[in-house]
Amino acid sequence: MTPSTEPDAKPRFAYAIATVLGTGYLKPGPGTWGSLVGILVAVISHPFTWFLLLGKGIEVAAGKTALLLTGFGGSLILLVPSVAVWLILALLGVCTSRAVSQHAGTEDPQYVVIDEVSGVHLALILGLAPVTPMVLLRPEDAAVFALYSGMSILNWKFLLAGFLLFRLFDILKPFPCRRLEKLPGGWGIMADDWMAGVYAAICLRLALHFHWL
Prior knowledge:
mainly alpha
């Protein structure tokens, strides 16, 4: 029997996710476009955005202060959705980028930008995450953190700084980014951008601490 010479079927779902619905084909600099989408995803997925849109109506209807900005529960409401969205993006990124790279026969195709989306999102999350669990346990601290986190994610200076810092570290790839690129499959495609996000988050935290943003 003659072996089939037909190419493997294109994994269309994997391409759609890995290229972020075709964003990776935009020119110039697909990584830049992917990072911009990551900023947009971070803002849209943050509950404070929805609080501003819907919270006032809920507060008027319920006749009391919305839970979102008060106490331990309010902090969790702000943190959990953003982290959950990042985890979903990260897992999808590992799986789909591996499938696309295998189909394309290239270790890290330029049009795969789900790694940039996930990386810049991580930078913004870590840039605002509480330093210690006590911030979430003390109601007075939790309320301040909730307001601080929500206002920062809608602060254009914070978003611009996060975008620029992430792109800087994504391009320069300081240690151990290049080593992380050598991880197998989709892990190598995603992990170096996560590390760039960590570096960007450190700089964001310093900038916020010294009131530069």
